[in-house]
Amino acid sequence: MSGLVQPLDWHAADWQRMMSAHRHNRLPHAILLSGPKYIGKQQFSRALAQHLLCITEDYSGNCGHCKGCQLNAAGTHPDLTVLAPEEAGKAIGISDIRMLSMNVSKTGQQGGWKIIIITPAEAMTASAANALLKTLEEPQGQTLIMLVSHELGRLPATIRSRCQRHVLPLPSNAEALSWLQSSSTDRETLQLALTKAQGRPLMAQQYLTGGLLDRHRQFDLWIDDVAAGRLPPLEAALHCQKLDAVVLIDWFLFYLHHRICSDIERQCYPQIFSFYDKLGKARGWIMSGANPNSQLIWEELFFDWLALSKV
Questions:
Q1: Residue 158 has pLDDT above 80, yes or no
Q2: Is-above-0.70 flag for pTM?
Q3: What is the average pLDDT value for the chain, to the nearest integer?
Q4: Which residue pairs, CB below 8 angstroms and at least 24 apart, start in 132-135?
Q5: Quick one: pLDDT at residue 57?
Q6: 107-135 pLDDT, tens per residue?
Q7: Given 167, 201, 231, which residue is the final one in a domain?
Q8: Where a domain ends, among 131, 146, 167?
Q9: Which residue segment(s) compose the domain that 125 sits in?
């Protein structure tokens, strides 16, 4: 990613607290930014990195003109390192962290801050997380390590305890709709996308501009068709096999949540809560990196869903 960025509007209060800490020399050596995915945590971390690497004394953001800002705009600043998996769903390994630790021990090439962003931090293997501990315990000079986490519970407690934690919030519905207005002029479509995205505006934007809304609707139809006996579970599993399993399971969980909320006053089956738990476990298997057979997982889920729909 290149270009200069600013924190999103709904993180203004968090940004001001960070600027105050910087102004009073109270920035920690390690910050853990957590919260739901697609709310702007990575943009916040990038904006803070660019601000610290700006050589002016402006405490509101980056100036956009100095050498530091020019290097950041080009994506070539030598004192900013972003460590992320090579591919979505892959892990950050111990060799990546060891290389990072070697870089941290060196003086910043521009004579100021050295910034490390690890995203998502939960992608680190157990050995990689252990290797990072020494760097977190023994910071070198003006070094700031920022860990961006979408699923805080997957990070070891030893990592969490060595960082200053900041939970970035979801925007209000009004804030999110205002931000999304450039993606559509139809307020009903905007609200539908935001609802499907569970209030996460960056995902809602993908729904509106990348065809994700149509794919989500199609997946909901597969769920309905399996329940009604119009689509065999094996065929539904085949549809899902080559798609992002974590995203689809999140959609299934969202579908089931609304089903439970709408039906709970009229009828409540214990089996539907068991199935909800099973979806959560399936998500954990896929996220574990153990490379489970997604076809078999989807077949079992859809057969269970068909049986549940007959209750």
A1: yes
A2: yes
A3: 89
A4: 132/97, 132/100, 132/101, 132/159, 133/158, 133/159, 133/162, 134/101, 135/97, 135/100, 135/101, 135/104
A5: 67
A6: 667 778 999 999 999 999 999 999 999 88
A7: 167
A8: 167
A9: 9-167
